[in-house]
Structures are given as structure tokens and as C-alpha cells.
Amino acid sequence: MAAVTLSNLTKSWSGITAVNDVSLVVPEGQLVALLGPSGCGKSTTLRLIAGLEEPVSGTVMIGGRDVTKLPPSDRRISMVFQSYALFPHLTVAENIIFGLKVRKVARAERDERLKKVADIVELAPYLHRKPGQLSGGQRQRVALARAIIAEQPVCLMDEPLSNLDAQLRHEMRVEIRALQQRLGMTMVYVTHDQTEAMTMADTVVLMRKGQIEQAGPPAELYTRPATSFVASFIGAPAMNLVPEQDDLLGIRPEHIGLGQGPDDAVRRQGNVISVEYMGADTIVSLATPESRISIRLPGASQIRVGDRLTAHWASSAQCRFNARGQRIN
Length: 329
Ligand code: ADP
Ligand code: MG
Fold this sequence. Notes:
Blueprint: E1 2-13, E2 16-27, E3 31-35, H1 42-50, E4 57-62, E5 65-66, E6 77-80, H2 92-102, H3 107-120, H4 136-149, E7 154-158, H5 166-183, E8 186-191, H6 194-200, E9 203-208, E10 211-216, H7 218-223, H8 228-233, E11 240-244, E12 247-251, E13 257-258, E14 266-277, E15 281-287, E16 292-298, E17 308-313, E18 319-321
Parallel strand pairs: 3-8, 3-9, 6-7, 7-8
Antiparallel strand pairs: 1-2, 1-4, 4-5, 9-10, 11-12, 12-18, 13-17, 14-15, 14-17, 15-16
Helix pairs in contact: 2-3, 2-4
Bound molecules: adenosine-5'-diphosphate and magnesium ion.
Magnesium ion binds next to helix 1.
């Protein structure tokens, strides 16, 4: 049974269509990431699942029930937002059990669940502090704990890590993924950060202008982008898009070599416009008459800005998009 099923979901405000005929199945126990540029409709989709917005048309099913007309409290979901939305005057413990109190869960059960959840998110030593006395990561864990303690089958997260620094974001995304798998939660996770989506999700749903551009396992979006938009969104640097007559050739930076290569290789010539040393590899950017080409070379490189180079790749490593951006091979 699918945990969440969206069918032909549309939401618009006077003139703006934020979500346009979106259909999506989130299988039970999976983490599905909604990814895409700012304004593409990720949060609106999540809010429609939560019941915080009402669709113009379409349906939301959760756990086999049509919940389209139900308020958030009847949908059996928990939510974590970017702004943790903690009560500053309540302790960590009180913040975590707040929802249970509202739902009149008995004290003994509350205490037991609190103890278990505090261990899971490693907050046991901090239960008597106020949120103001915690680090950003600890506050984020309180928000997580509040979602976990609810023991709802579906957890919705909207950019939960964007307020954290890079190091902590990395730790938290590993933690959230581990928790989600350990507890068997179904999670819909909104992010504009492709690294989060690619590293955490079972399925990445890339959105563009209120619609789903491609949905699939991370490796599928990376190796078989359905459109030139997907190709240019996923990867850092993204897939190169090299014009050839009316088409675009898509080639990943790591699949390009320097020099003439084998006889049947595809080649482009250009001038080096930047050399970025990243430690494990170096990204060289080449300006050719038609486009820029990024090349990923292992380790350090002797190449200098201004050098004239030939880049080559195997035609088997490239994909081809037509003028409308659809992949045609
Ligand atoms: P994302 O989360 O992907 O950045 P949103 O779902 O927040 O995007 O927004 C999608 C589009 O809907 C944007 O153009 C946004 O301006 C518009 N939008 C979102 N909420 C409202 C609202 N309450 N009223 C009017 N327009 C809105
Ligand atoms: Mg958003």
C-alpha cells in the first residue's frame, strides 16, 4: 500500500499556478525528496499533502484513505519546518511532548515515549534546557524529536536543514536518513539542495514550474536525465550541454578527457577560462565557440588559464536532447 498518493493535484492563486496537475506515489517506508529551484512548487505540494492548503482539483490519499477534505490533525502526519517553530519559553522536554499533551496522551505514556525519543536523537542531557540554550543542530533535533514522538506513519519535512552550517548539514542528513530507515518512516522531504536529495532519497522528484520534470532513483536522474533541465540541474558542476545542429549533446565533466583521444571520439577545442582546484580533483572550464565545457580531472593539474586545449569524449558516454529539451537517446 502506498503511504501517500497524489492524483492530478492542482493549486493556484489568482493567476499563479503553483502546482500543476501533479501525480505522485510515495511508497511506504521510502524517503522521497521534492527537489527543484526556488518557486517551483515544492512547499505548496508538501502543504497540500499536510492539509495546510486546499487543492483546486485532484486528490491526496494517505495510507489508503482519501484525506483531501480532512484537516491536518486528521491526516496522521507529522511535520518539520525550516524554522523549527519551537516554543522559546518551554523546555526541550515540554516542546517535544507538546503535541502529545494536546492530544491528551496519559502522563506515564508521554514520559516513556519522551525517554525513548530523547535517546534516539541524543537529547537526553538537554531535556531541561530552553531552546535558546541549544546549538542550531540541537534545536533541529528537538524539532525532529517532536515529529518522531508523534509516531505518525508519514513525516513531512520542508527544508529542515537550511539554517545550519555546511558541516552540521552533512551530519544531520546522515542522521535523518538513518533514523528514517531505522524507524521505517515514510518521509516526503523538500529541498532545493541537490546534494541532500541525491544522498538521502530513495526517489528524487525534480520539479519545475509546478510540474514533475522527472522522478526516479538518484542514479537514474544522474545517468539518464529525461530532459536538458534535469541534466543541467543535477551534478556539480552540472552535465555539459554542447550544441550540435538543432540538438544538445549532454556529457558529464568526469567523462571528458584532454587531447585527441581515440579516432572515433567526439572533440571540441577551446581556451581555458578557469581552473578550480578542489583537492581530490580539478575542474577546468573551456570556452569553445558554441558553449562552455567543464572537465573534471583527477588531483591537481598543470593547466593554466589561457591554455588552448582539445577535449574529447566517447559518443557512448553522451546523451542527446532535442530542441524542446527532451532526451532522444
Ligand atoms: P518552492 O517551495 O518550490 O520554493 P512554493 O511552493 O513556495 O515554491 O511556491 C510556488 C509558487 O507559488 C511561487 O510562485 C509562489 O510565489 C507561489 N505562492 C506560494 N504560496 C502562495 C500564496 N499563499 N499566495 C500566492 N502565491 C503563492
Ligand atoms: Mg519552499
